[in-house]
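Lecture 7 notes: from sequence to structure.

We start with a single chain of 140 residues. Read the sequence below before looking at the structure.
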Amino acid sequence: MEGLFRLQAGRDALAVTGGVSLRLLTAAEMLEARREGSTLAGADEGARALWVNAAILARALVRGGAALYPSARAVAEALSVSQIQRLAALWAAFDREENPGLGISQEEVEALKKAWSTRGRSALNGVYSGLLGRFLPRRG
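Now the structure, written as tokens:
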């Protein structure tokens, strides 16, 4: 476990402006941000990314070690859509820089994401296809 902690020897935060910084989030904080954003978006898939980004920023934007906003809703009420998008992109680039993937480039990640998003989506794809492949079809 000690070796794992040595991997993260970079910066903890990125200075933005006026004493405000973007800090890296823990895995638990990311999961909470995604859950909060999804809850706020409800069934509106178009709004989901904006709410999740607002939830990430609510946790990541700090001044003097204290959170600048108490919630995603507070971020959405204080910042414009373009401000949220720019700050979220800045945070994502900082996170990628400080937490690089293990042996895969960003281009490879994007190619995999594209391949997964364009694959067939029948009910038998995915989990069930591996299971069904083990059984021979019945004849007669």
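Residues 119 and 125 are 9 Å apart (CA to CA). Keep this in mind for problem set 3.
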